[in-house]
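Exam revision sheet. Question 4 asks you to relate a sequence to its structure. Input first:
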Amino acid sequence: VYGYGIEISPYYVGVSSIEEYTKSDYGFVIEHVYPGSVADEAGLSRGDLILQIDNKKITESSIATLWTKLVDANSSNNINITAHIYDEEAKEYRIEEHKLTASNYESNPVAFCDVLTLDEKYGAGDKKIGYMVYLAFDHDYNDAMVDAIKELSKQGITDMILDLRANSGGHVTSSIMLASMLLDESYVGDDKVYARLKHNPKNTVYDDEVFTLDKFYSPQGSSAQYDLPNLGIKKLWVICSEFTASASEMLIVGLRGLDIEVELIGNVTEGKNCGMEVTYKNFDGYKYEFAPITFINENGQGFSDYGDGII
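Answer key, structure tokens:
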């Protein structure tokens, strides 16, 4: 991916508590910095605030323009940012300025994956809690997702928290793969439906599709098949927001359709119970991409009524 390597939270926040800024000034919150990107090399990290871009404060009138500059590097190959960061060593905040020049980086959506440990005073007993922050169902990085789950499986986790607050969806195949790894092999079978993609009856281009969970996977660029790791969980905790959508919601309702308990912590999800098939057409030397809504998603129990979000 070409850019600065910054994932911005969909929220912007007031920054009037910072000297020289007023109630009409805002900041962009950094959700994630991709390792190896120019933002990473500059020392920026999750939670830092971007206060200015190219010496312009973020106000109601400039939000859209400055947002585009930050997320679309093709519109400007380099930017100057003013950031409010927290210095872990000094235990204090400070203002820094950085010039970022766009470059290529790996946009691995597995932002964090580890085992959480809790003190005995919390009554955790001998629980081992896996926690993964997953930013997008990107099939180009399915191998990274498999490696992350393999590591959790190796460490013998007993519980799983999946952080999908910033995950607005992606590929159906990645959703199926993740669900397959969360459960055990007993959930693989033609009679155990994970998702149905249902089209308008008048649609003669695409047939309805039924998806079940997978036992095997093929690494990127390989035809060889390997067993998927299995965590074998019976309950999943999902941290979500109103930006949790599409393939993320497919995972939630798909697991519930298989009678897996999924507990949501956070805000009501976006409510994208539908999806698109993408086609391409060439006109006058230009290539156009068309992605109309073409199907609705339902789980194995026939549930699809979450267009207003999942509570």
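Marking note for examiners. The chain is about 15% helix and 35% strand.
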